[in-house]
Specification:
4-stranded antiparallel beta sheet; mainly beta; 7-stranded mixed beta sheet
Length: about 120
């Protein structure tokens, strides 16, 4: 299993970024996919999840109305569109899949929101 995140960077408050996670090594369309984030000195937290079909989506309260998770099962890719970014969104963002064997993580992509 391999998860590779793209799209992080430096953005001003109020700006937008789109993260992508390219997955391989498993049947992508059969699994729930998630985005987590970890800020300096804090525990890793779940940001958003999307069911295998994309029909069931959940967000942590702090990002509701600003972030959108989506997936393209034909491309084995999951996305996180982040709008109206705030300084408190600064973190390393990780793609995640939990299989019957274990939990898998990408390498993470840094998102920094600062003026």
């Amino acid at each position: 299993v391999q998860l590779v995140e793209f799209g992080g960077g430096l953005v001003q408050p109020g700006g937008s970024l789109r993260l992508s996670c390219a997955a391989s090594g498993f049947t992508f369309s059969s699994y729930v996919m998630s985005w987590y984030r970890q800020a300096p000195g804090k525990e890793r937290e779940l940001v958003a999840t999307i069911s295998s079909t994309g029909l069931i989506i959940n967000y942590v309260d702090s990002v509701k109305g600003r972030f959108t998770i989506a997936r393209d099962n034909a491309k084995n890719t999951v996305y996180l569109q982040m709008n109206s970014l705030k300084s408190e969104d600064t973190a390393v963002y990780y793609c995640n899949v939990r299989t019957s064997v274990r939990n898998y993580w990408g390498q993470g992509t840094q998102v920094t929101v600062s003026s």
